Amino acid sequence: MSTSLSPSDLQSILDFTTALARSAGELILQGSEAIRASGSVDEKKNSVDLVTEYDVRVEELVKRELSAEYPTFKFIGEESYAAGSRQVLTDEPTFCVDPIDGTTNFVHGFPHVAISIGLIAQQHPVLGVIYNPFLEQLYTAAKGLGAFLAQGARPPVRLPLAKPPIAFTFASTYRDRMGL
Question: One GO molecular function term (predicted)?
Fold first, then answer.
């Protein structure tokens, strides 16, 4: 299989992963409600990094849907990786997923939580979708297509929302030219 993805391919994948992120967001909201109602949480070995059954459920949902739509693409998920599944990163298109980015916030009822779906091709990031269902913030980006923020029912706006300050622009240009 060719590992090259055209802008049209990326737009199609972006559309699919955006809808998938919204579906996963619904499951995250259900999980948050269930956790608040029950008060139960399982802890990982590292007490700062909490995991719940919803981390696994959201990852399983995302993996199942991605595998059905893109059966030749590889998959790296935070929960499956932590459980010992060590997919080797190759040039093949690979989805990289954090099912509940901000698990500690999720468990404690803070609304700063997101589903994060990335696509890596030829070992370079080419697409990303981050959706916070609590705040209804959807960040999307794809190589050559731009980056956008959609909030609630408002139309997406191109990022950055504000022009960076001149000092930042100069520093970035200097670092780029110096190869830093």
Answer: inositol monophosphate 1-phosphatase activity
